[in-house]
Amino acid sequence: MCGIVGYTGHREASPLLLEGLRRLEYRGYDSAGVAVLAAGAPARVARCEGKLGRLRELLDKEPIAGKCGIGHTRWATHGRPTEANAHPHRQGKVSIIHNGIIENHLELRQKLEAAGCKFASETDSEIFAHLVDRELAGGGDLRAGVARALGQVRGTWAICVLHDDHPQEIVAARHNAPLLVGLGEASEPENFVASDVAAILEHTRRVVDLEDGDTARLTRDAVEIFDAAGKAVRRPERRVDWSPVAAEKEGFKHFMLKEIHEQPRVISDALAGRMAPQQAEVRLDGLDLDFGNVARILLLACGTSYHAAMCGKYMLEKLARIPVEVDLASEFRYRDPVVQPGTLAIAVSQSGETADTMAALREAKRLGATTLAVCNVVGSSIARTADHVVYTHAGPEISVASTKAFTSQLTIFVLLALHVAKRRGALDDDSIRRAMQGLSAVPEAMGHLLGQLPAIRTIARRYMHARDFLYLGRGLGYPVALEGALKLKEISYVHAEGYASGEMKHGPIALVDENLPVVVIALRGAGYEKVLSNLAEVRARGGKIIALATMGDREIADMADDVVVVPDVDELLQPLLASVPLQLLAYHIADLRGTDVDQPRNLAKSVTVE
Ligand code: AGP
To answer: What is the DSSP letter of 236?
Structure first.
């Protein structure tokens, strides 16, 4: 989604802003721009449609000097991706960048046009530039003027504002869209503002998260924050321990490939310090929920996180014997859901900023549920809104296609299921210890599995021209099939469908012929025999079968065209391993087809609009 970075200090702003925007590229965007102020002159704006390289060329040709500036990458919501619609928007002496949506923009636009304002873009964001310009027509305090302008709009925003008469100053404001302040660490004074910490990590690790309703004034020497009521407040500072190197590709061709290979370490990190086998205890970041009073769990998520939540349902029900429902966050909030007393709603989100998941979480809260967030991004909106939070510790996920976040979420679900099982007395200590042992062995097994990379590329080459794929699985293999299909479609643009294999006879079998590759999750476990029957049905109709089989399974080799062998682990842990070859299959097909793997078309990393 859109990205924001701002700088005020002793250095030239343009190169810093460009570098910050480059680090936000993974969020997805269709245009970019900067506005830079130098004392005694109006701010200068450079912006263009398309990739950052174009903006860099513009700035190389006509550099903009100045030590205070704001930069933006836009992902179109209102108005096409054109230069005119790119941010910053300028009106009078005001330059603004905005993430979010102004809900009453049509009404405001009509009013402003009637008062003689001329609009230069189709965006809702430009409204802010006009409103602030009018508020400051007679001069005055920039932050107060921005606050008055904000009082007239409804919607969501992270905004940064420059004013020609305030050459060192950036005013920032946040309401339901991420925005943080970076406190300079260099010997000379400087300060930063960004929608994502990755943009400024190279320069500072000292971060202050703005709260909804806050406005902030940044100069090179100071940062002042005011709450929604205009009262000066102090927000806590935190130190970010993600290294900037973690946001680089480290020699892999794509971030996605790098992140797939990071998974053994990510799972170790997610487990680190959380299991106490002696006491058969799982400790989750001090989670102190009384699970004795929880009658039902409701899992809310979107996309890949939703597939992890589907696995979570199986895990929680199996180990903790507690009823679990899974809902797409985008559906939950609009269907007048019934939330009974004793409900624990768990919002699952890598970014912690997904608008639908956030809205569903709020709705669950409003209806009386206790809430817990399973999140990757510390200090994200969802993490801060829920009553409790458990972090997945997967590190920054840059690739739009989620991989390591998924397996880290699965790891948390197994841990959570064991934690709840212990609290509710659903499992004896020996069973909990055995499960912990199994979990501890996953990173090594996954490392071994990743060694099969060349074989999967060969399979990918064989099927890279297929127009459709079917993914089949049963039990925990079903959400794994859904996730495998999602990975393939989002990065290779090949149509892929995931199905519960038991449903195949109820419709999708009609699709099967010699042109349809069918990926079957056929690991040993409760539904194994049934999956074999489904496999035979596909084979009888000429379908090409790519099977995931448990190491040592010789039966499958005779039934499938291609077999990927997965280490033998407890059935509940199979999704952790089975998802890896499917991620790789999708990756290699996309790479062979030459798509933009890390930034697939039409997609954004963090979907902060509904
Ligand atoms: C995953 O590959 C997707 N790009 C997408 O489905 C994603 O999982 C979804 O938008 C939810 O994001 P979140 O986990 O950050 O809330």
So the answer is: P
Count Cβ atoms below 10 Å from residue 96 Cβ, excluding itself. Answer: 30
CA distances from 445 to 177, 232, 501, 565 (A): 39, 53, 26, 12
Q: What is the DSSP pairing of strand 31-37 with strand 68-74?
A: antiparallel
Please name which of 218, 158, 256 lies closest in space to residue 490, comparing C-alpha atoms.
256
Pick from 442, 406, 411, 408: nearest CA to 307: 406
Pocket of ligand 1 (CB under 6 A): 302-305, 349-351, 354, 357, 400-402, 490, 603, 606-607
Helical axes 429-450 vs 263-271, angle rounded to 10°: 160
Whose Cα sits closest to atom 9 in ligand 1? Answer: 303
- Each residue of 419-450: pLDDT tens digit? 999 999 999 999 999 999 999 999 999 999 99
Q: How far is CA 119 from the centre of its chain?
A: 33
71-88 per-residue burial string, b: 16 or more CB within 10 A, e: under 16: bbbbbbebbeeeebbbbb
Q: Among residues 297, 367, 300, 303, which one has the least CA distance to residue 332?
A: 300
pTM equals: 0.76
The residues annotated as belonging to the active site are 2, 605
Cβ neighbours for 110, distance < 8 A, ≥ 6 positions apart: none
E strand or H helix at 383: helix 381-385
What mean pLDDT is predicted for residues 342-360? 95
Angle between helical axes of 404-424 and 303-320 (0-180°, round to 10)? 20
Say what angle helices 126-135 and 105-114 make with each other, to 10 degrees.
50
Residue range 181-228, pLDDT digits in tens? 999 998 899 999 999 888 999 999 999 999 999 999 999 999 999 999
Task: Give the pLDDT mean for 280-290.
Answer: 87
Q: Which residue has its alpha carbon closest to ligand 1 atom 5? A: 303
